[in-house]
Amino acid sequence: MQTLKIYSWNVNGIRAVLKKGVFVPFIKEHQPDILCIQETKAKQGQAEIDLPDYEEIWNSAERPGYSGTAIFTKIKPLSVAMGFPDDIVSKYQLGDGYGDANNEGRVLAAEFDKFYVVTVYTPNAKDDLSRVPLREKHWDPAFLEYCQQLEKKKPVVFCGDLNVAHTEDDLARPKENRGKKGFTDEERAGFDAFVAAGFIDTLRLFKQGNGFYTWWTHWGGARARNVGWRIDYFLVSAYLKDNVVAADIHPDVMGSDHCPVSVTLKV
Fold this sequence. Notes:
Distance between the termini: 6 Å
Order of helices and strands: EHHEEEEHEEEEHEHHEHEEE
CATH class: Alpha Beta
Helix content: 10-25%
Oligomer: single chain
């Protein structure tokens, strides 16, 4: 039985990370079998990436320089799906005053032999919480239903920037941030629904307590002081729980305001 390393990273602009000279060295050091990226802010071909061992799959936003996801994989997928299927789009009506969230390149799924890998860049609730209704009533239930649809065929590994800290252990200053974007009751309930549906937060199989963060504000030396939030996750179907042999965050990898997260599976 071999192991498979899957990584996820919100790069906050693939061109910016490439320009900083950190993206290819990160891949060469960590050697992910599958790498999921969020917030690419680019279309395929707008970034010169020399990674001959990887197949690239991009789901870019219709709006230039915004949002977007991608999967780089050494293993050729059996199939690929971009965005939500039509039945979920019509059921959940994913548009709001900011636009149609399903046209923002936020969901990308790749089918492999034994499971699906889904990467997601969840809409941010906004400072004024104006996108909380989209999250609560539309996006979070739509994403859960989509993963459950896929689960009927084979287990699911989903990862990405979920733009929520699930519990008080998932951010350095929970009291000061309760009710603010990323830590509202509505957003946290969306995560609770994933757990209630049987999905497992893989990092918590190995690490308990606080201090494990994946995003830091640029202000006040927050990253150096590790005053952060854990908003980037790997969740797996309950069926895969015993296949998870490691789950980590990689705060030493610079280049973005987020750091990569990873999971290693026995396959």
